[in-house]
Each structure stands twice: as structure tokens, then as C-alpha cells.
Amino acid sequence: MPNHSQSSDTKKSDPTQDYLWQHLFEIMPIFFPGFEDMLVVRTWAGIMPYTPDGIPILGSVPKLEGFYLATGLCGGGLGTGAVLGQLIANLINHGERPGLFDDTSITRFSDKKD
């Protein structure tokens, strides 16, 4: 069975993660023969929020003054997050609303557009 070694940036063991690793290592050799003795040095996992239409949700939230969203990047957040963060900061601080934000309001998912 593969061996999962915690990297130095891992603070503590997570029972859920440990459970998932155990079962992953039981199943993985079925799909990847030869991986039985693999040493896993580092892993990464994160939330990848997707929207129904594949377009991010960017901008303010109606009826929640001062609340802004920059989510639903559909797995592209690592590559686009810094730029979108700057754009959201400019929106919040200076009212700058680039054309990129035209079709990204959360209200597109409701029948009533506020």
C-alpha cells in the first residue's frame, strides 16, 4: 500500500483526511497498477467552486451592503485569483467596475434581478 508522509507544512493530522487517504490507497492500485509501494511526498486539495453557467460570481451582493463576492472561478482561481482580487479591491475602494464584471452578478441566478 502507498505510504502517505506528512510534509513539514502539515500542522496536525485530520481524521477525515486520514480516513480518505486510507481508502484512496486501497483503491488506487486497482486503477494504477504498480503504485502499491508509492511514497506520497506532498498533496494538495482545495475547494473548486463551480457555477451553473461556468461564469464567476464577481461584485457586490444586493441587500448586503459592503458584502462582495469573488467566487465560482471554476478551478481557475489559482491562476486568476490575484488579478480578480485586485479588480475587486478597485471596485470596493474606487468604484471601478471593468467590463469583465458585466455578466458576473449573483443576481443572474434569481428570477428577480435586484
General description of the model:
The strands form two sheets. This protein has a two-stranded parallel ribbon. A two-stranded antiparallel sheet has the order 3-4. By secondary structure, the protein is an alpha+beta fold. Helix 1 (15-31) links the parallel strand 1 and strand 2. It has two domains: 3-40, no CATH class; 57-109, no CATH class. It is elongated, with a radius of gyration of 20 Å. It is 31% helix and 11% strand.
**How much of the polypeptide forms β-strand, as a percent range?**
5-15%
Please state the CA-atom Rg, rounded to the nearest Å: 20 Å
Q: Order the strands across the largest sheet as they lie in space.
A: 1-2
Shape: elongated
Number of strands: 4
First and last CA, distance: 55 Å
Oligomeric state of the chains in view: single chain
The number of helical segments is 2
> How would a textbook summarize the main sheet?
2 strands, parallel
As residue ranges, the low-confidence spans are 5-9
Count of folded domains = 2
SSE order in H/E notation? EHEEEH
Share of helix, binned = 25-40%
| Mean pLDDT metric | 81
Helix/strand structural class: alpha+beta
Brief synopsis:
With 114 residues, this protein is an alpha+beta fold. It has two domains: 3-40, no CATH class; 57-109, no CATH class.
Write the layout of secondary structure elements.
Blueprint: E1 3-4, H1 15-31, E2 39-40, E3 57-60, E4 68-71, H2 77-94
Keyphrases for this structure?
about 110 residues, alpha+beta, two-stranded parallel ribbon, two-stranded antiparallel sheet, 2 helices, elongated
